[in-house]
Specification:
The protein is mainly alpha-helical. The protein has 8 helices and no strands. The protein folds into 2 domains: 1-101, RNA polymerase sigma factor, region 2, helix turn helix motif (Rna Polymerase Sigma Factor, Chain: A, Orthogonal Bundle), CATH 1.10.1740; 125-193, Winged helix-like DNA-binding domain superfamily/Winged helix DNA-binding domain (Arc Repressor Mutant, subunit A, Orthogonal Bundle), CATH 1.10.10. The radius of gyration is 20 Å and the shape is globular. It has helices at 11-21, 24-46, 49-66, 75-101, 113-135, 138-149, 154-161, 165-192. It is 78% helix and 0% strand. Helix 2 (24-46) packs antiparallel against helix 3 (49-66).
Amino acid sequence: MKAIRTDTISDEEILQRYRQDHNQDWIGILFERYVHLVMGMCLKYLKNLEDARDATQQIFLKVMREADHTPIRYFKGWLYQVTKNYCLMQLRSKQAQDRLSEPEDENQPVVMPEDEEYVQMKNVQLELLEEALQQLNTPQQTCIRLFYLEKHSYQEIAEMTGYTLMQVKSYIQNGKRNLRIMLEKKQKQLNNG
């Protein structure tokens, strides 16, 4: 890659150039632009510097793998979502490992079968919700997660994503409607199946 000024090139144009020539230097530019953001988020979620560094590396490797075939309209918002999802998966994995390695405690309350059924049902519902969220388009998914799961205001979401306030409201409203439709459809399939 010949020396060019990269500070005037948009993220989306850099992705386009990467898709054309597969030169990893383009991803390197995005890495330099956003490593602080990704590292900060990873540290916030994982609360361990070494884990955050590893996660940051894995996330940018994922960016390299997915940038070629994933439609990305707004890179920063997409990267935010990828980072958050990666960190949440790491936390879930760690919690599962911690539960398996916990010694039996005689003082712990015994979980009754009804409680286990209830927990299992809630887990199924959460999995269905996560599946449905994944099926939303990127702007709707990002806005829904930021508003409902992270409790950001419309204004904060607009600032974080670069969308207008009207777009944020629209993405949340349409995303909510699409989620409801998908979940009702899944529920009918479960009841009939």
